[in-house]
Amino acid sequence: MNNTRKTAVCLVSGGLDSCVTAAIAAQEYNPAFLHVNYGQRTEDRELEAFNRIADFYDVRERLITDIKYLKQIGGSALTDDSLDVPENSLGNPGIPVTYVPFRNTHIIAIAVSWAEVIGAEKIFIGATEVDSSGYPDCRRTYYKAYNRLIREGTRPETHIEIVTPLIDMSKAEVVKRGVELNAPLELTWSCYKSEDKACGRCESCLLRLKGFGEAGIKDPIPYN
Q1: For the chain, which domains are there?
Q2: 138 and 128 in contact (C-beta within 8 Å)?
Q3: pTM for the whole thing?
Q4: Burial status of residue 62 (CB atoms within 10 A of its CB: 0-12, 13-18, 19 or more)
């Protein structure tokens, strides 16, 4: 850890985008890693990926929290077992059933609280708008609005900003950036359905495979 650097909170789900975002943050900041369990299907596997990525970057400040009330609320195929995770649906119009209603707002609120306590001025999140599932809480306008909320809802002397370094990148660009930064992409997990081998058919897997394919790089994780 570089004691001359400022601290930044990094939201790390364990997925490809959050890993590359953490690699970007680690260039300038001492990263404090935040992971949130919300009752998703692959909760255990995502937490495993989070810890492996945190170990890779020798992150000492880690916060693992639990908001499983999102599973109680339901409304998403990621948290409601009665809803099937769609397969081979990449490119379908509309917001997919894997959208967890207002999830990022809950997660970022935790990050803001922690950032205010530990004195972090930046919160890094791996949101992408260009090559994504079209979730409304992954748009540039959403983060612009959230930054206004942070200014209104924290101490006057507090200066916390959400940073979205991948927001305008395609998945291929994300993959290439990760390789450039020697990010441990082999430690990441993106599948919505499986915890041993990635299914290769859910939208998250398809977006990931599309990114690696367009980047001309072999995806290092196992698939069924």
Answers
A1: 7-215 (3.40.50.620)
A2: yes
A3: 0.96
A4: middle
Q: Are 191 and 204 in contact (CB under 8 A)?
A: yes
φ/ψ (deg, to 5) at 201: -125, -20
Q: Above 70 in pLDDT, residue 193?
A: yes
Residue for token pair 């997990």: 189
Average predicted confidence (pLDDT) for the chain: 96
40-44, Cβ contacts within 8 angstroms, sequence gap of 24 or more: 40/71, 40/78, 40/79, 40/100, 41/78, 41/79, 41/81, 41/85, 41/192, 41/193, 42/189, 42/191, 42/192, 42/193, 42/194, 42/195, 44/195
167: nearest Cα among 123, 203, 126: 126
Give the tokens for residue 106: 């809950």
Mode of pairing for the β-strands spanning 62-66 and 122-124: unpaired
Beta bridge partner(s), residue 84: none
